[in-house]
Amino acid sequence: MKGTNAFLEQRVNSRFGVKGHAFTSNSMTQFGQIQDMGMGGFRFVFVDNGKWPVQSGRLDIVFLDEGVTLENLPCRTVWEVVLADKISGLTIKERGVSFGELTAEQKAQLEKFLCDSNVDCNISASL
Question: Cys-Cys with 70: which of 14, 20, 27, 61 at CB 3.0–4.6 Å?
Fold first, then answer.
């Protein structure tokens, strides 16, 4: 039956796989590994210890290979799924977040990183 997918694609901006090591953190105390990202948001995997913002908040993005950090990005949780429940007492989750209103500098830094790390990048066309 058509139209029965659990998730319907509502993304406006394209997402790109992240090459290298990219992480997100909430004030550098908890870390999650970014799986893919675009100008509209990103998807990451993390250990849920109850210290991540549930619905909205501000997150940092750290691109280790490039030595770049984007700080204090406004984000809103769009979806979340449990990947593994209670492995050694830990719950592993995956979460998709969308960006809130980014500053011009944050947008420029994000666009530069995405274009530098992707061969077939045409970010400006999707803005």
Answer: 61
